[in-house]
């Protein structure tokens, strides 16, 4: 359990750091004289950031499974795409339930869902800023 918590915290910190760095770049893009293509660029940055966070957690799930912290209820064995798919569904808090973690990997899944909720909120703030700027132009 302690190993799963340490891994989950490390993934959380890495995800928040990466996401906030990328959102900072998005804010700097908005500070420059704005145009529609800059806003599309910011939207793509946000998408890339969320996909990167899902990739980080997918790697964390793989590592956790390799360390014997748990597994996934899916047959046959999990592929790289399965780890990414589960992570992407989990980070968005959608949680379809077709793949689910067992044992201590459930801790990492819970932290990922909380992380995703927080980071999606940060992204929403950036989109709100973009829309508000468009009203004032």
TrEMBL record:
<keyword id="KW-0813">Transport</keyword>
<keyword id="KW-1133">Transmembrane helix</keyword>
<feature type="transmembrane region" description="Helical">
    <location>
        <begin position="83"/>
        <end position="101"/>
    </location>
</feature>
<keyword id="KW-0406">Ion transport</keyword>
<dbReference type="GO" id="GO:0034220">
    <property type="term" value="P:monoatomic ion transmembrane transport"/>
</dbReference>
<feature type="transmembrane region" description="Helical">
    <location>
        <begin position="107"/>
        <end position="128"/>
    </location>
</feature>
<keyword id="KW-0407">Ion channel</keyword>
<dbReference type="Pfam" id="PF07885">
    <property type="entry name" value="Ion_trans_2"/>
</dbReference>
<protein>
    <submittedName>
        <fullName>Two pore domain potassium channel family protein</fullName>
    </submittedName>
</protein>
<feature type="domain" description="Potassium channel">
    <location>
        <begin position="65"/>
        <end position="131"/>
    </location>
</feature>
<keyword id="KW-0812">Transmembrane</keyword>
<keyword id="KW-0472">Membrane</keyword>
<feature type="transmembrane region" description="Helical">
    <location>
        <begin position="41"/>
        <end position="63"/>
    </location>
</feature>
<dbReference type="InterPro" id="IPR013099">
    <property type="entry name" value="K_chnl_dom"/>
</dbReference>
């Amino acid at each position: 359990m302690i190993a799963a918590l340490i891994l989950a915290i490390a993934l959380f910190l890495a995800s928040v750091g990466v996401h906030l760095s990328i959102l900072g770049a998005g804010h700097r893009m908005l500070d420059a004289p704005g145009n529609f293509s800059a806003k599309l660029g910011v939207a793509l940055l946000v998408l890339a950031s969320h996909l990167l966070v899902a990739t980080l957690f997918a790697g964390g799930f793989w590592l956790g499974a390799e360390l014997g912290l748990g597994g996934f209820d899916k047959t046959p064995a999990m592929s790289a795409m399965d780890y990414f798919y589960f992570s992407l569904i989990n980070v968005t808090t959608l949680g379809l339930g077709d793949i689910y973690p067992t044992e201590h990997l459930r801790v990492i899944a819970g932290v990922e869902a909380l992380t995703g909720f927080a980071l999606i909120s940060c992204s929403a703030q950036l989109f709100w800023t973009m829309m508000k700027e468009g009203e004032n132009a």
